[in-house]
Design a protein that fits this description.
heterodimer; A: alpha+beta; six-stranded antiparallel beta sheet; 13 helices; B: mainly beta; UDP N-Acetylglucosamine Acyltransferase, domain 1; eight-stranded mixed beta sheet; seven-stranded parallel beta sheet; DCTN6 (chain B); Dynactin subunit 6 (chain B); Trimer_LpxA-like_sf (chain B); cytoplasm (chain B); dynein complex binding (chain B)
Chain lengths: 583, 192
């Protein structure tokens, strides 16, 4: 079993604590606090979503409240490419998509970055003896992964220029053939209609088209263009397409005219528009490949034989296929390949820098530097500089049998044997804090452990300048040691209501815990995952006073400037202390 | 070089000085470590970096032409089997063994033009084909056969290298050796 390091999670108050509490009529006894109806239960399924380490939390200075990643409004400051660190304006993003359109590509096999290298095509006369003047006037370029040695020549793609790879790649199909341009497509269609002119029936034309263009080789773009052209022609001139099918089509349930008739029945003729109806009634569906019809090819035997012949490692994984950018130049329905050998280089996905706002007061809590190259923040109000941090240490007291064994991190806790933990609260702010702790007498859950916070109320001194304190304390080095609550003789005794030790801006207190026995009684379920972890919910309430001045002065003009304002913050946190020994 | 040792580890026992057969054009650093009892052969223009360890205790070690053996590599590491064979490790021509790679003894053969990546480990009796690339921290188990032009990457995934740049790579290797020869002071006399 993995050893457990003690941890502290803080519950963000944004989640409703009342709904997280365990109903009081369950087996676990009710919490000791009278005013607090429900104890926060760290094992409740919903608790997982509201507990955060202190480092994850932010703090809104205006609302005086903790803000977690769940209760923060994010807005995107900049988009940039993680490879070339170029900022992409958001207008480009709408037109060109969320991928880098410069020459940044990832290897489709191993996600490594690809680099553009020239392929030296040695002249036929060249031999190994003359290697240095092999640079031919016309050299081509390819993308090469330096990690797994993938090269774009494997999918038959080579580039003429070393720059503008994204634009070049968009024009190329796998195998090196260039994508059809709109003009070429038009020409090809003209050619087809010319050939199929004699055949009056559209079905005959479809056969011809299938034969001439190779059926399934129709790529997504061509198909869409065909379909669009067909629909436009139908809308513009419905009578032209009336070639004997319209009367039949009118009877079909799927035809637009019958649909509109049915709709008219239900809507009471509101949709009735004689002009539209006459137009719709004349429209028919696409019937041929040159009209944008794509027949499904259910015969996948060639693909299956290829799968039989290939190795498992030759097939692309689902993540590899998912990371492929949409490629308009490829057949999309059946031609989409499942093999590594047809994967194309992946342009880098853009990343964002986000600023974070408080959802309540709309103040910015975190704002990164706009420049992509810098990782600094202009504003970042982390909770760690506003609320005290809690660190946990096991305290081993020497018993009557001699000195205590040193505490080992992640040591298992013996059931039903009291153990002491030292909680150290460190004050990050420049005011002294008044801390009040509340913990249920027993931990919630099936195995209630007894918890006693020996000193639930204490003050922590302000976080003053380190050097001030050091210089002040210089002459009374010994007295600073004696700030430890107990004298040397009673040093190792835990007393109720007294703090254990205090320092410049920190205070340690002792918590006594009697871990529950994990013995299962008859009829109980087996031990669930991590049910042996001893977790104490603890309610922390901190109070401090701020001078009513500074930026708050304007808000309260009638108030006395010297008057101090009291602030308080209260939240639940969970202390994970360790695992209880089983059996 | 100062004779003062900075390492806190105990000095490696040099053991017996192995019989060697060096070509006159090799570059071998003074601090390379050659141990064992069997013959170590290093062919033309190969480079042995400082602190590379060649152990011929479990058999002969043969290094081909224009090979580069980097620092802290171990050739002929006695693995779990500890068997003694006639040939412990054979490197073909143009082989690069990168930093901290380890090749176990036991008739292990590495083909021409292969690159063994940083920290890679090759088990005893493995056969690596020609022009393979073993990416850093690859592990090849004992007795495994890696066909020619294979790239072993990301925890044992394999693919074929179809770039067809073997000749170019060999040329690059020759150029690199030219540079290394000027950088590394050679002292073959120490080992003969």
């Amino acid at each position: 079993m993995a050893p457990l390091n003690p941890y502290t999670y803080i519950q963000c108050p944004c989640s409703d604590s009342a709904s997280l509490g365990r109903p009081t009529d369950l087996t676990s006894p009710t919490s000791a606090d009278g005013d607090e109806d429900n104890t926060f239960d760290p094992r409740a399924p919903r608790a997982n979503f509201s507990l955060y380490p202190l480092e994850y939390l932010l703090y809104c200075e205006d609302c005086h409240q903790i803000r977690c990643p769940r209760c923060i409004a994010e807005e995107i400051a900049t988009y940039y490419c993680p490879s070339c660190l170029f900022e992409v304006p958001s207008s480009n993003l709408k037109s060109e998509g969320n991928r880098c359109t410069r020459s940044c590509f990832q290897c489709p096999i191993c996600i490594g970055p690809l680099s553009v290298t020239s392929i030296e095509t040695p002249p036929p006369s060249s031999t190994l003896l003359s290697p240095d003047h092999a640079a031919t006037p016309h050299s081509t370029y390819s993308l090469i992964c330096s990690y797994c040695n993938w090269s774009s020549t494997e999918i038959g793609i080579q580039f003429d220029k070393p720059n503008g790879i994204h634009a070049q790649l968009a024009k190329l199909r796998n195998g090196g053939a260039s994508r059809l341009t709109a003009k070429e497509r038009k020409e090809r269609r003209k050619e087809l209609s010319h050939r199929g002119g004699e055949a009056a029936v559209a079905a005959a034309a479809a056969v011809a088209a299938n034969e001439s263009s190779g059926g399934q080789d129709v790529d997504l773009e061509t198909q869409f263009a065909n379909l669009k052209l067909f629909c436009n022609s139908q809308l513009a001139d419905p009578s032209a397409a009336d070639n004997g099918f319209s009367s039949l089509g009118d009877l079909g349930f799927s035809s637009p005219s019958s649909l509109s008739r049915i709709m008219n029945l239900y809507t009471g003729g509101k949709l009735h528009d004689p002009r539209a109806k006459s137009k719709l009634g004349a429209m028919r569906e696409a019937l041929a490949a040159d009209e944008g019809l794509l027949e499904s090819n259910l015969n996948e035997s060639s693909l299956i034989t290829r799968l039989h012949q290939s190795d498992f490692l030759d097939t692309a994984s689902s993540t590899q296929i998912c990371s492929q950018p949409p490629n308009l130049g490829e057949p999309h329905l059946h031609g989409a390949s499942r093999f590594n050998s047809s994967l194309r280089p992946v342009p880098y996905l853009l990343r964002t820098k986000r600023s974070k706002r408080c959802p309540v007061c709309r103040h910015i809590i975190s704002k990164p530097e706009a420049k992509v190259q810098t990782t600094r923040f202009r504003i970042r109000l982390v909770a760690g500089s506003y609320i005290p941090s809690i660190s946990i240490r096991r305290l081993n007291l020497p018993g009557p049998n001699g000195p205590a064994a040193p505490a080992i991190l992640g040591d298992l806790l013996d059931p039903l044997k009291p153990v002491h933990f030292l909680l150290t609260f460190k004050n990050p702010i420049f005011e002294s804090l008044k801390v009040t702790l509340g913990a249920p007498a027993t931990t919630p859950g099936r195995f209630p452990s007894k918890v006693t916070v020996l000193c639930p109320q204490f003050d922590i001194d302000a976080n003053t300048d380190v050097w001030d304190e050091a210089l002040k304390d210089n002459d009374r080095e010994s007295s600073s040691r004696s700030r430890r609550r107990a004298g040397t003789e009673s040093q190792f005794q835990v007393e109720v209501g007294k703090i254990w030790e205090r320092g410049r801006n920190w205070v340690s207190i002792v918590v006594e815990v009697v871990p529950a026995s994990l013995k299962l009684e008859a009829g109980q379920d087996v031990l669930k995952e991590d049910e042996d972890v001893l977790e104490i919910p603890m309610f922390v309430r901190i109070e401090w006073e701020v001078e009513n001045g500074g930026d708050d002065a304007t808000s309260g003009p009638g108030r006395d400037k010297d008057q101090k304002e009291k602030r308080e913050l209260a939240y639940w946190c969970v202390l994970g202390l360790g695992r209880i020994k089983q059996g | 070089m100062s004779s003062k040792r900075h390492s806190i580890l105990p000095a490696v026992s040099a053991g017996p000085k192995p019989p060697v057969r060096f070509s006159s054009s090799i570059t071998i650093a003074d601090s390379a470590l050659l141990t064992g009892t069997n013959l170590i052969t290093i062919s033309t223009e190969s480079v042995i970096h400082p602190r590379a360890k060649l152990d011929s205790l479990a058999g002969c070690i043969t290094i081909g032409r224009r090979c580069v053996v980097h620092e802290r590599t171990t050739l002929g590491a006695i693995g779990t089997s500890g068997k003694v064979t006639e040939q412990a490790v054979t490197l073909g021509d143009y082989v690069t063994v990168e930093v901290a790679a380890s090749i176990e003894a036991g008739n292990t053969i590495i083909g021409e033009g292969t690159t063994v990546g940083v920290g890679a480990r090759i088990g005893a009796g493995a056969f690596i084909g020609k022009h393979c690339t073993l990416t850093p921290h690859t592990e090849i188990r004992a007795g495994e056969v890696v066909p020619d032009f294979t790239v072993v990457y990301s925890n044992g995934m394999r693919r074929m290298d179809k770039r067809g740049v073997a000749d170019l790579k060999n040329k690059g290797q020759a150029r690199q050796i030219d540079v290394l020869r000027r950088m590394i002071p050679s002292n073959p006399a120490k080992f003969t």
